Amino acid sequence: MRLGLALALVAALLVGCGGGDDTSPDGLALPPVGAVVDYQLGGRYAPADDVDVVTRDSSSIPDPDRYSICYVNGFQTQPGGSRDVFVVLHGVDLLLQEGGDDVIDPGWPEETLFDISTPEKRDELAEVVGDWIRTCANDGFDAVEVDNLDSWTRSRGLLTQDDAEAFAALLVEAAHDAGLPIGQKNSAEIDGPALGFDFAVTEECAVYEECDVYTDMYGGHVIEIEYTDNGREAFEQACDDAAGDRSILLRDRDVVPDDDPAYVFEHC
Question: Which residues form the signal peptide (predicted)?
C-alpha cells in the first residue's frame, strides 16, 4: 500500500466509521486539512520533502509516497488534439455545437465543451468521464478533482447551471463507486456538498474574495491555489488569515515543472 493512502487510512481508523477530520461520511480518506499541496498539472517532477499531497493530470502517474489527486477535465475535451480522438471514439453529438461549429472555451481554444444539455447525453458522457475516473483509481490515485464545472458560463447560453449540477452528480457517483473522494473545482455558486462533493479545489479564491464560501461548505478541506500573475498580495493575505486552516499555495500560471525558469511554488 502506498504511504500517502496508508497514512490517510490510519487517520480514518482513528476517527471511526462516522466520518472525521480526514474522512468523508462514506469513509473515504480525504486530503489532510492544511496539508502542503503541490499542483503539478504542467508536468511531473519530484516534490519537495515537505509536500504531503500532489495533484497530477490523469495522463500522469501518482506520487507513490504521497496522497495523490487525479486531475480530470470532466466538462470539456483536453487540449492537444483530443477533440478529434473524442469524436472518433464517441461521436460529435456529445460535443456542444452551435450552427455546426464547436462551442469552445475562449480561454482554452483547443477545448470544446461537452453537450450536457439532456439527460441522455449526460448519461453517455458520464460513462466516458467515469472511465477516466476509474482509470485514476486503477492507477493508484487517492482522489479526483474534476475541472470546468462552470462550463455552462461559457456555453453561449446553450447550457444551464442545472445541467452542470445534474452532470456533476453523475460524476460524483462514478468517483464514489470507484472508491475515490471527489473535489469540487471552483464554481462557488454551486452547493457542492449537496451534490456529494467531498472537498474543494479553488483557484484565486483570495483574489475573488470567495474563500469563505468554500470553507463554509467544506471546513478545512479546501485547497487554495493562487497565481503569480496576480501578484503576491492575495497569497500573502490568505496565509496571514488562514495558514494551517486550509492548504494554500502559490504557483506560476502555467504550473510548469521545477526545471523551467518560470517555475514558482510556495506554500504557507
Answer: 1-20
**φ, ψ dihedrals at 213, nearest 5°:** -60, -45
Beta carbons of 91 and 137 less than 8 angstroms apart: no
Domain that holds residue 70: 35-267
Q: Is residue 12 part of a domain?
A: no
Is 17 a member of any domain?
no
Give the CATH number of the domain where residue 256 resides.
3.20.20.70
Q: Are 27 and 41 in contact (CB under 8 A)?
A: no
Q: Cell triple for residue 167?
A: 452532470
Decide if 176 is inside a domain: yes
Task: Reply yes or no on whether the pLDDT at 4 is more than 90.
Answer: no
Q: How many residues does the chain have?
A: 268
Q: Give a yes or no: residue 79 inside a domain.
A: yes
Beta bridge partners of 223: 201, 247
pLDDT tens profile 135-183: 999 999 999 999 999 999 999 999 999 999 999 999 999 999 999 999 9
pTM here is 0.90
- DSSP classification of residue 148: -
DSSP characters over 76-145: B--SSSHHHHHHHHH-GGGB-EETTEE-EETTEEEEEBB--SSHHHHHHHHHHHHHHHHHHHHHT-SEEE
What is d(CA 227, CA 252) in angstroms, rounded to the nearest whole number?
5
pLDDT digits (tens, 9 = 90+) for 111-120: 999 999 999 9
The shares of helix, strand and coil residues in the chain, as percent rounded to the nearest 5, are 35, 20, 45
